[in-house]
Amino acid sequence: MDAQSVNFGNWIRIRIVLTFLLAGLVLIGLSAVIPVPLIRFLLWIAAGVMLAMTAYLTYVYYQFSEQGGGVQRRLWTLVIDHLHWDHHGQALDIGTGNGPLAILLAAKYPDAQVTGIDYWGQAWEYSQQVCVQNATAMGVAQRTRFQKASASKLPFEDGAFDAAISHFVFHEVADAPDKRAVIREALRVIRKGGAFSFQDMFLDKEIYGDMDTLLAAIRSWGIDEVRFVETSTILNLPRLLRHPRVLGKAGLIYGRK
User: Is 3.40.50.150 the CATH classification of the domain at 71-256?
Assistant: First the structure.
């Protein structure tokens, strides 16, 4: 196993950071050649905003990274620790990215077979090829497989899996206007009695509505046990990561079907 060669990626995309940096530098350059004081002042303000965003995103990137705060791995571990199953059989990782959850789950539980699905769109710096490389490096290639699919319409029969996990994916599913439908689709492919652990921006009422109403809806879909916990109550997160657009509205919905 060569864990040093594993590339799980970072939620903060480098090209986004570079875009803000470039925009800030361009605005500074424009301010140097435009003689109108008011316009120069406005350009300085805009440049300051761009550079402040660059600094903030760089900080978040560092906190998420393995070489920095390691927050991503702590969040992955949180999802896996809330998956209460017997660790045997088939598990599904929905929105696998570069495969961290699927691979870590397979590495932790040698009797599990794990499938990871993702759409792997151009907006994200992930790929199916990197998933396979990571699984090989971690020594779990024989017990993991990865395929392209949308979380809004999973290509599996009802009850095909003993367990399912997902991490900050549901709210990003572009082809599902109602993100609650994505949760329901994830639960559909779990067998009766199977376990699930999903982490997402569940406290964002614009996406999921009221939490009590959401949990009631999930129970109405035939789920025997469902619980919610706010991520920040479990993990001691840096204050700047608790911003609503980062992890401030994050939570776990977990239980048994």
Answer: yes
CA–CA gap between residue 176 and residue 193 (Å, rounded): 27
pLDDT higher than 90, residue 3: no
- Give the pTM: 0.91
How far from 62 is each of 5, 16, 78, 105, 113, CA to CA, in Å? 19, 14, 20, 24, 32
pLDDT in tens, 12-59: 989 999 999 999 999 999 999 999 999 999 999 999 999 999 999 999
- Break the chain into its structural domains and give their ranges: 14-64, 71-256
What pLDDT is attached to residue 245?
A: 86
Average pLDDT over residues 57-86: 95
